[in-house]
Prior knowledge:
alpha+beta
Amino acid sequence: MSFYDTQFFALVVLPLLIFLARVCDVTLGTLRLVSTSRGHKILAPVFGFFELLIWIIVVSRVMQNLDNWLCYIAYAGGFAMGNYVGICIEEKLAMGISVVQIITQIDASKLVGNLREQGYGATVTNAEGDTGSVKIIYSMVHRSDLEQVEKLISTFNPKAFYSVEDVRFARSGIFRPRRWIWGRKDLNLPKIYRGGK
Length: 197
C-alpha cells in the first residue's frame, strides 16, 4: 500500500494540502482584484493565471475525495484564511495612490507647510461648513505614505476631519519620492517627483 492510500494521508496530509493551496489561491485572487482595480495590466493576468491553476488542482483533489468531510472543512477554511492573508499582503504592499481630504476650522498653514516640506503636494481652498468657514486641503499620496501623512495631521491639527479615497489613475502631480520601486532602490529621484505613478 502506497503512502497516498494510507489513512494518515487521507485524514491529515490531504486536508492540510487542500487548506494551504486554497489559502494561496484566494490570496492570489484578492491580489488580482486589487491589481485590476488599480489598472495593473501585467500583474492582474499573472495573478489570475496562478489563481486558476491552483484552484483547478484543489477542486480535482476534493472531487476525488468526496467521502472525506475533512477535505470540505479544509477547502472552506482555506478560503477564509486566504481572504485574510490577501488583505494583509495588500496592506503591506500598499499599491496605488490615495487622495487625502482634510477639513479644518483652525489655521492650516503649519500643516500645509509641513506637508509640502515633506514632499507632499497640498492644494488649499476656502469653503463654508455648517459651523462657519473652513479650509479644505487636498493631497495625493502613495498609499505607502498614508501613515506618515496621518501622523502629520495628528501632530499639527489633531481635531481636523479627514477622509482617504483610493485613486485609480493620476496623470501628474507632486509626489514624495518612493524609496523602493519594484525591488530596487531609487536614489536618483529629486526631492519632489512630478509624475502620476
